[in-house]
Specification:
Chain A is mainly alpha-helical. In chain A, 70% of the residues lie in helices and 8% in strands. The N and C termini of chain B lie far apart (63 Å). The chains are: A mainly alpha, B mainly alpha.
Chain lengths: 521, 67
Amino acid sequence: MNEIVDLSLIDWSRGQFALTALYHWLFVPLTLGITFILAIMETIYYKTGDPEWKKITRFWMKVFGINFAIGVATGIILEFQFGTNWSYYSWFVGDIFGAPLAIEGIMAFFMESTFIAVMFFGWDKVSKRFHLVSTWLTAIGANLSALWILVANAWMQNPVGMQFNPDTARNEMVNFWDVFLSPLAINKFLHTISSGFVLAGIFIIGISAWFLLKKREVPFAKKSILVAAIFGFISSLFLVTTGDGSARLVAQHQPMKLAAMEGLYEGKNGAGLTALGIFSPTKTDPENDKLHDFIFKIEIPNALSYMIHLDVNAFVPGVKDLLNGNEKEGILATTDKISRGKMAIETLRNYKNALKEGRKDEAFQLKEKFMSKDFQANYFKYFGYGFLTNANDTIPSIPLVFYSFHIMVILGSWFLLFFILSIYFVVNNEIARRRLFLKIAILTIPLVYIAQMAGWTVAEVGRQPWVVQDLLPTVAAVSSISAGSVIVTFWLFALIFTILLIAEVKIMTTQIKIGPKDGGH
Amino acid sequence: MKRIVQFYINGFKEMTLGRTLWAIILIKLFILFFVLKLFFFPNLLKENFSNDKDRGEHVIENFIKSK
């Protein structure tokens, strides 16, 4: 299949998906986090009756409303692309994706639309208690609606709970709970929402810092920082914990991604964790030009082995072990996986031909063979490898994954420190005087968005060439359409999203400059 | 029921910034569904094949032509 699919079509289709997903993700995490901060602020208002807290809640609610309005429905474009650019993928995963996405649609529609309306229209019209409950339910609803798409994404990284049907070429769900409660799905959900919580905390602190620098709305800004910093600090701890869990799961299910994240070429016992590193743009491994040499690297000895296996001497496979195999560690060479994948495709081909030519007994036997436990575990498991021609195709862009991962981790560490400093300064009533810190707080807003994008780059570029891990590579998932049409829609999206982003920034900055006031929505 | 409808009507009437945001949402939805979806994003398998059997056959044909 590699030979017959236009590579520029794949690149543009991937580019378009990445562009829309990243733009969509500019809006989502703020919604995930700020709704909970709003709920906390309103709870304080409900408990204390202090009108200042009502003013604070209403201001951040307005910010949330702007972000929600501009961002809503931007994710639908991704679904359009499934049907047009990724129709084979869409068909292949259809039954698995159908359930979570349908639940998401219903949940997002009913929970969010109902309770958001009460949140915005209900001030002084419904009871304080009902309003507060609505705010909490909006927060829970927004986060639960993210759950389903993340369950679907986790399934692509670790396909479980399904059975491929050779008659329909679709994966059919055999166990909903295996899909829904897969450790990867749970971890991905928790890691993603906590990253949204961190982003929202930083966003609120950054905007409040602007008010303090302008010497405006000082009590409002200090109170906002206090809530956002405590919420952000707790979320950061959660983010670190789930990030650690995520690395362990990646090691288990996507070892090539982990090797790319760490720039680990040769597997070893007692593998070190690369804290920092810079690749040579030109010098590569003499046997493999996809493996760039490090110009500089700081490594923490044994830390990677400990992080993954909780054993400082445990073996962690590198790119070369995964490519060439490692008998001692029970790792199959990629070329063997390709042969097994081709065998799975060949069996499917023979089955379809036997059916077409009316050789019913042979077709029956071939289907029995295809569906047998042994064939599924030893051949179908590598179905996707059958579409590949070169073992090197299984290596993602190592510099991109490595740098993205390290940018995410370094920024994540800064955010933790940032929240600690914010709490310290605000509790000691120093925050208004710390002008340098306030300026840094504003600059931290773009950094948290960069960290978000870096995180998704690790998750999605790191799993290349797979659309569905080991079962469907990108090259087999893309539709047979012209690259020209994808290029046109790529630029259309770029234009639409840029206009939306400009609208968001303009409306948001105008409202922030106006500042908190009573009433209006 | 009447109270709920009235609640929404009043809410929409009293909107200030919300009017601009709703305008953006409606324009966006129009562009998404009546321009992009209609002219640029056909569901290929749905449009080119009349039933799921043919769709499945087409996808399998694409998979098994790989050598």
